[in-house]
Design goal:
homodimer; alpha+beta; Butyryl-Coa Dehydrogenase, subunit A, domain 1; Butyryl-CoA Dehydrogenase, subunit A, domain 2; 3 domains; five-stranded mixed beta barrel; two-stranded antiparallel ribbon; globular; Acyl-CoA_Oxase/DH_mid-dom (chains A, B)
């Protein structure tokens, strides 16, 4: 049985670096202790390793199909694994105790869930989406809505979805056309088509709670007209039991490069498949007020984006561990300069370029894991920080880090998966080795939950200029504090200098980009900005990790030293030409006539 | 029907830039003219577009299986497409007229074959491998061997394979264990297992000619003990008709991420499946002398590697054209700063970041196509250059460019396929869009025919130091000649300066790496060297293209200008931190203890 994720690294990051155990001093987490955190991590690691990882390939090879009765058929093993997960109580992790939750810190919950994401991205997506769904309802729903629709999801009895995209509107949510028609009884009827709905239909649970963005008739155009609705697959009776079938129809399944174990659907709302209450139209319940849909959704977006980033990290990380395992045992060739062709072959790790590929992966995935757990820690801080200043600081940092936390691992931990294949040579390109699937699975992450391009516009077009650059200033101040600590120690002083120079330059370039005040010019090369900022931030995360290592020495800590050295020598300098390009306000892309493409 | 490759670009590169029509002045190509070249290109474009591209997805979705009779079952459409290809006479392209060939220049042949590689990598692989096989036999076989085994392959009646790798020996060919036992009649009997044999078994042709590396009993260890054998699937009677079944057994099919339409096999030689001549053992015919196997194979390696590079370019190129087509028609959102949310959505090309992704693809695939056609032109020059100096110069350039021509497109045209998916958003991640398959197919290219790491050792460990650096000097001299021409024109002078600085630095760093004379130190970061050298070379190819554009202006030529601008602004500067790292003789990877990974 292969290792899905390094528990020692998770523990190091959570407890040595982020001091997660100190969270138990806060009222919300007072019932917890390092022991209960360990128990959650132990349980997650065990279930992920024993129940999720072994079926990951099976789910890939046996995509969902629609049976003759119109129902989605999934491998039985998926339902069994998810039942074990549900019975562990883990879905309730972060929720309030009075909703049946465990009131776990998000930090610990994310660390624990990463094991599932590493073991099987496809299987993990069902609880992943459901948690986000319930989270949104708990935040914005009425107590009755929470009780009726969120609690069964928290208990793992039902699953939930997020229905945002439509065939003609993905990144551009303002252009959705799903209509909601007000009814006399206060409910709405929805009509329209939703695309890319993961978990959109299946028989894994007795009900599915769809959270649907739609426009009430007469609403203003664009994002201001968007409202959020609860649309259950089956209506729910007053006693909480399953009622009539709602008018939500499965139109088709999408067939993707990866994530094949997740049903991904095209759904029609209100096409007349069912006639709840005697009429066609999908019965929906408004969440909050009309027109608040996108704001409500965005309120949860940080957590969703951080979880997507964590999914990318998890896939990259498990791929790295698989490649490492292979490289230590597979023999091939001899090192350059070896003279005796009849000497035994050496392990792959004896080849410098294989070590380079492994160390690069390590720097990406452990850097990514650090970044994502740091962001998770900010979410807890934002919610439970000691005072408003601490909470605001966490909020500001989170805002500016979120697009990076989503995008950077989607790019670099996918690059890690690419290297994991390369370490395996021809074998890695076959479906007999897990790294092949990880690569295909991870390719989704730069797309969903806001593409790379969208994240780059969010970072450069909103986050770093918000409040006159206040959020960016908070990040810079935070990094500078690390730099100051690192400058004081021999081992880290040179890294501190290198990082400091890049942070200063990033701030300077940000100013240069916006100096003219023209968004078209400032944002023309936003993707380059996102990449440069990401590398600066991850270099900082590595320096933080090295400071947490301190004076300790063993193979694990030497690994942290080597990965930091790699990141600063091979990766961080990549930002210099990127920042130069940005500073030049290059117009190549801006002025390009599409006709010449 | 979608465009598989830009014919205008192929024509521009072949005829405007590389002056391929002037080859007809040479004796070998005297029967040809621009018109016959055009006819071959026309025919290839038509067959590729009408017969190969339409079945590409079908081949992906219907992998070969082994039927109950032990025979490989492939979709009938594949055989039909390949029959059209065979009947066109194209397989005989580059071969001598007296072998039934067309004596086409390799340059034109490669340009023509790229259409097939773009239309369906999997389908094209059958003739691709067969051509390489016949090529090798023509070069090294006896006239009788050529007549018996190569001519039917040239005629497209039989297919050929290359059997090098074994399960335990891929990159390390010196460690193969397949044995060849000398027989009294001068033939050999082979015993062993060969892995990753593409086209290793099928019913597409009545015979398959395997070219097999094996060691004659008593041969020295390592590569010096390797010999090359012809091992036909069916023995061949004296009159050329099909004889007894040889002792070559299909053990299994490999299931890959992509290239699913190509049978990729594990073959056993001499396991006793058949008993030709009454005894077990695969009957083989020695090619040339014993112990010459690897040298013979390497003699063909440049062409094979250039063809693999071209395959990577072709997949990247067709992906780019698909993404461009999509981006021009798909609408989404509005440009930054647009105020009216009810205004119609804009085409994807209106978004700067989408233009960036398209222009990046263009710079990779058109740069790659230029590089590969240039190398093909060198192969012709090496064979038919006016005098020995010209032929030597072509040879030296080819030696140093080959690892780059193989690796650079395998990396960057795969990156283009990645961007092509990204331009499509969620749709690009589904198997309904061709770009999804191109990405999976292209992921093979950094692995087969020498991995990225192997190419980097070849470049830095052999090619740039050969003859005291003579080959590298020839490349530098060639690039400097371009720089001198470019320096004289306003439009290109600045590019000339930028390129010149990088070339000088590359030479300097090469010297620094080898100054200590320690291969372990020099080669520790060879992959970084390969990448830096590749970008310098492709920047040169772009400058050459721009010089070939001259004063002409239309959308096509403006596109060349924009892509050159992009490559020099966004790509070439990436080599600076790479060269700095190399110059520092960084030991991070060299000194890394695998235990700390």
């Amino acid at each position: 049985m292969s290792v899905v994720l390094s528990r020692r690294d998770v523990d190091f990051l959570l407890f040595d670096w982020l001091k997660a155990a100190e969270l138990t001093e806060r009222e919300r987490y007072a019932e917890h202790s390092r022991e209960t955190f360990d128990a959650v991590l132990d349980l997650s690691e065990t279930i992920a390793t024993e129940r999720f990882a072994p079926i990951n390939r099976l789910l890939d090879a046996n995509e969902p199909v629609v049976g003759e009765d119109g129902k989605v058929v999934l491998p039985a093993e998926l339902g069994e694994a998810l039942a074990v997960y549900r019975d562990s109580g883990t879905p309730a992790g972060v929720f309030d105790a009075d909703l049946g939750g465990m009131q776990l810190p998000f930090t610990v919950s994310q660390g624990a869930f990463a094991f599932f994401q590493a073991a099987s991205a496809a299987a993990a997506s069902y609880p992943f989406l459901s948690t986000g769904n319930a989270n949104l309802l708990v935040e914005h729903g009425t107590p009755e809505q929470v009780q009726t629709y969120a609690v069964p999801v928290i208990e793992g009895r039902w699953y939930g979805t997020m229905c945002l995209s439509e065939p003609q509107a993905g990144s551009s949510l303002g252009d959705i056309t799903t209509r909601a028609v007000r009814q006399e009884d206060g409910t709405y009827r929805l009509f329209g088509t939703k695309m890319w709905i993961s978990g959109g239909d299946h028989e894994l649970t007795e009900n599915i709670v769809h959270l649907v963005l739609a426009k009430v008739e007469g609403a203003p155009p664009g994002v201001k007209g968007i409202s959020l609705f609860i649309v259950p697959k089956h209506l729910v009776n007053e006693d909480g039991s399953i009622g009539e079938r709602n008018d939500v129809a499965l139109v088709g399944l999408n067939h993707k490069m990866g994530w094949r174990g997740t049903t991904n659907t095209l759904l029609n709302f209100g096409e007349g498949l069912a006639t709840p209450g005697g009429a066609a139209g999908a019965v929906g319940h408004l969440v909050g007020d009309e027109g608040q849909g996108l704001a409500q959704m965005f309120h949860m977006m940080n957590e969703a984006r951080i979880s997507v980033g964590m999914g990318a990290v998890a896939l990259g990380y498990t791929g790295y561990l698989h490649a490492l395992d292979y490289a230590k045992t597979r023999t091939q060739g001899r090192i350059p300069g070896a003279k005796d062709p009849s000497a035994p072959m050496v392990p792959l790790t004896a080849h410098a370029d294989v070590r380079r590929m492994l160390l690069a992966q390590k720097s990406y995935v452990e850097g990514g894991l650090g970044l994502l757990l740091y962001c998770a820690r900010l979410i807890d801080e934002q919610a439970t920080g000691a005072d408003e200043a601490a909470r605001t600081r966490a909020h500001d940092l989170l805002e500016v880090l979120t697009p990076i936390a989503k995008s950077w691992p989607s790019q670099w931990c996918l690059a890690a998966n690419d290297l994991a294949i390369q370490v395996h040579g021809g074998y890695g390109y076959t479906r007999d080795y897990a790294v092949e699937q990880f690569y295909r699975d991870n390719r989704l992450n730069p797309i969903h939950e806001g593409t790379h391009g969208i994240q780059s516009l969010d970072l450069l077009g909103r986050k770093v200029i918000a409040g006159g650059g206040a959020w960016l200033a908070t990040l810079v101040e935070t990094i500078k504090a690390t730099v100051a600590r690192a400058a004081a120690a021999d081992e880290t002083a040179d890294y501190a200098k290198q990082l400091d120079a890049r942070v200063d330059r990033l701030v300077e370039v940000t100013g240069q980009l916006w100096a003219g005040g023209d968004p078209a010019v400032a944002l023309a090369n936003s993707a380059v900005y996102l990449e440069a900022a990401g590398h600066v931030v991850v270099a900082w995360v590595w320096l933080e990790q090295l400071l947490a290592v301190g004076e300790r020495h063993d193979a694990f800590f030497e690994g942290k030293r080597a990965a930091t050295r790699y990141f600063f020598a091979f990766e961080l300098p990549k930002v210099d030409p990127q920042l130069d390009l940005l500073a030049s306000l290059d117009r190549t892309v801006l002025d390009l006539d599409p006709a010449s493409l």
